[in-house]
């Protein structure tokens, strides 16, 4: 069984994609509900992980350092820690995942979220070393901005797809068999 690979996509629509996992969609909808107005991004103070308790295990927050560009885990949910096999809260992404250095362009989608203020969705094979074997990963990166415009944090959600799940084409949805 294989997971249909989707290239990372900047997401400008105001609703989730048709083929997104329901939990990824719920995360996107929560973020959308926080936007104070069209064209204005929610801030970290608006984002309350405890408001989405069923999603909390897959939530991770990244602080942004612009020069040089680096990302630091502010928060990592229990499922994220389990995938990685390490408590990464407070760690720089490149320290938590030393293999990033061997993956040219890995940080491009994060940079795109920071520079454009636009969400980014991806489904496919994990690109970083994780502790367990999974069919694939689906994740969503969402911009947060203290001033509503300049991204200073990324709120993210990841779900790992297991062998006992039937993943249907991206135009469809994901269903457990």
User: How many angstroms does the end-to-end distance come to?
Assistant: 13 Å
> Regarding CATH, which class?
Alpha Beta
Number of domains: 1
Oligomer: single chain
What's the topology here?
Elements: E1 6-10, H1 22-34, E2 59-65, E3 70-76, H2 78-84, H3 93-96, H4 108-116, E4 120-124, E5 136-144, E6 153-161, E7 165-167, E8 174-176
Could you describe the 3D structure shown?
The protein is of the alpha+beta class. Helices cover 19% and strands 27% of the residues. The chain has a single domain (6-35, 54-163), classed as Beta-Lactamase, CATH 3.30.450. The protein has helices at 22-34, 78-84, 93-96, 108-116, and strands at 6-10, 59-65, 70-76, 120-124, 136-144, 153-161, 165-167, 174-176. The strands form two sheets. A six-stranded antiparallel beta sheet has the order 1-4-5-6-2-3. A two-stranded antiparallel ribbon has the order 7-8. The longest helix has 13 residues, at 22-34. Mean pLDDT is 83; it is low at 166-177.
At a glance:
This protein is α+β, with helices and mostly antiparallel strands. The protein is built from four helices and eight strands; from the N terminus they run βαββαααβββββ.
Q: Which features does this protein show?
A:
alpha+beta; two-stranded antiparallel ribbon; 27% strand; globular
């Amino acid at each position: 069984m294989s997971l249909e690979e989707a290239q990372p996509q900047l997401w400008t629509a105001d609703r989730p994609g048709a083929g997104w996992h329901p939990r990824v969609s719920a995360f996107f909808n929560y973020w959308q509900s926080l936007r104070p107005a069209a064209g204005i991004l929610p801030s970290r103070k608006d984002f309350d992980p405890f408001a989405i308790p069923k999603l909390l295990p897959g939530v991770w927050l990244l602080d942004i350092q612009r020069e040089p560009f680096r990302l630091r885990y502010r928060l990592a949910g229990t499922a994220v820690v389990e995938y990685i096999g390490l408590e990464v809260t407070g760690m720089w992404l490149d320290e938590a995942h030393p293999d990033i250095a061997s993956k040219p362009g890995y940080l491009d989608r994060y940079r795109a979220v920071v520079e454009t203020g636009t969400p980014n969705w991806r489904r496919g094979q994990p690109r970083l070393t994780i502790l367990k074997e999974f069919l694939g990963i689906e994740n969503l990166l969402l911009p947060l901005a203290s001033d509503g415009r300049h991204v200073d944090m990324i709120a993210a959600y990841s779900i790992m797809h297991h062998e006992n799940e039937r993943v249907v084409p991206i135009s469809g949805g994901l269903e457990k068999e």
